[in-house]
Design a protein that fits this description.
With 273 residues, the protein is mainly alpha-helical. The protein has eight helices and no strands. It is globular, with a radius of gyration of 19 Å.
Length: 273
Amino acid sequence: MTGAAFAGAGAVVAEVAVLKSANVALAGLAAATPGSATAGVTRFVAAVLVFVACLGTTWYALANARHEAHDTLVWRYLALSTTVGGVYAALLIAGLVAASAPPLLRAFRLLAQLFFVVFFALSLRELYYAQPSTSDEGDRISLSTARRIETAFMLLAVVQFPIVVVVGPPGVAQAILGLAAAAFTVYGVSFGQAIRARRLTHGTVIDVTVTYTTAVLLCVGAVTLVESAVVLVAPQAAVDGAVNVLLVMIGSFLISLIIRLKRSADAAGGTTG
């Protein structure tokens, strides 16, 4: 009873923190000007929220992997996704705290941001192929073919991205990042929609995972695209405000996913125990 009360209190505290952070982000969106202290504080709070939420999601995804015999790889992909997301948030925090962030720090942050999108898309792909196929899905590509295509794209990103960051203008790197993130966002969301279309049961941990994973994927992809809008001479104040709000949304979706994954892990642990 004490554990349940503690978990409930933790969920309430987390939701209150999200609401407070959302209010701060919205205030920053309305009032912040480029380079203002308000925008910086808002970005810092949002980045901390994402960092903590990523750590919690990683922990409970691995807890589900220990108890679920069939979908272990799915949970490990999700844990890998949020681990990379935590690295991205940590690098974002470091860049905000540092008086003058070195170009290498920005390069690694952008790369972590891209792979935050990539691994979330791959977790949805893995979940799609883990589900039983139906009779009208005989024309879908094989899992091995999908993995080869994904590996080729990731290797291309790893090889060319540092070269563009070091040699080319920053705007070019940001534009390439936006295009790659958009492609993987569409790729992952298509798998999420396919999973939801063919599942007969609703309200299960898989359904909730697909819903919130898709939501986080869309938000991270949107952050990347909004930041890339600077290349198109978009107003910096609008870009900063939109990114702050999207970061808060990522954290809130992850906290909702944490609550569901914790319930699933506790239930599975009680069953096996």
